[in-house]
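Duplicate of #3305? Posting structure anyway:
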């Protein structure tokens, strides 16, 4: 029987690759995001996929998405939180006061990366498959080593204790909760217009595998964590970074 897989940020990058992997297994895929035209284009590439445009940084947006999923599918088997980013794609006003700029950047990152995940999870928690539900968060290598500004890294690191608390809360229902922390991944919009070749070579040199990550690397890991084979894995952070960050 086909499962229902809800993917935030499903219109591009890792979210879209994840949707394609699940759909190839015959699962029902629902894509969420803010940009309707992006979601529509992505859904057109995936047989049977549907989409719902909503701003998941706001309670009303998360509620709207959850109500759509519950109304159309009833039960959500897999919830993947891929929405987020560093804010590079957002319009940024000019600030005369440097502290106002700091407040803006930190607030923006927590809205994009933390609130999108927590609000949607809380809105959908009563509709998660019991037992067998899977909740999967996209963290980042930055949660372990920082990101330069600190705001993005902190907003991803904040997902870790939330996921651990959620795993304890949902565990008695037979629902697992895990995080995947990618390193440098190409073929996404994360860096906006991209990064310089020197920086790219540096990031690749940090790996043990000698290559950049691709959305499919992360998508396949999420797919495995949502499988029956991973039914006894919960409250874990799985790193997908080619060895750029070790252990933990």
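Output from current build:
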């Amino acid at each position: 029987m086909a499962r229902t897989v809800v993917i935030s940020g499903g219109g591009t990058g890792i979210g879209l690759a994840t949707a394609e992997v699940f759909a190839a297994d015959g699962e029902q895929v629902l894509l969420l995001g803010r940009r309707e035209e992006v979601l529509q284009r992505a859904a057109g590439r995936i047989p049977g996929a549907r989409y719902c445009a909503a701003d998941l940084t706001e309670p009303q947006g998360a509620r709207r998405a959850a109500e759509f999923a519950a109304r159309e599918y009833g039960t959500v088997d897999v919830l993947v939180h891929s929405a987020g980013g560093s804010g590079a794609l957002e319009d940024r006003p000019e600030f005369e006061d440097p502290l106002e700029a700091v407040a803006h950047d930190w607030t923006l990152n927590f809205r994009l990366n933390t609130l999108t995940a927590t609000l949607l999870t809380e809105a959908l928690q009563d509709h998660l498959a019991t037992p067998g539900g899977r909740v999967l968060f996209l963290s980042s290598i930055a949660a372990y080593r920082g990101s330069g500004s600190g705001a993005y890294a902190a907003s991803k690191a904040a997902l870790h204790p939330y996921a651990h608390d959620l795993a304890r809360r949902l565990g008695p229902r037979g629902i697992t909760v895990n995080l995947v922390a990618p390193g440098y991944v190409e073929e996404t919009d994360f860096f906006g217009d991209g990064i310089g070749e020197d920086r790219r070579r540096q990031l690749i040199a940090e790996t043990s595998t000698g290559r950049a990550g691709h959305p499919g690397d992360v998508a396949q890991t999420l797919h495995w964590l949502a499988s029956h084979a991973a039914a006894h894995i919960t409250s874990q952070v799985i790193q997908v970074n080619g060895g750029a960050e070790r252990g933990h």
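Confirmed duplicate; merging threads. Residues 98-124 form the longest helix (27 residues). The chain has one domain: 4-240.
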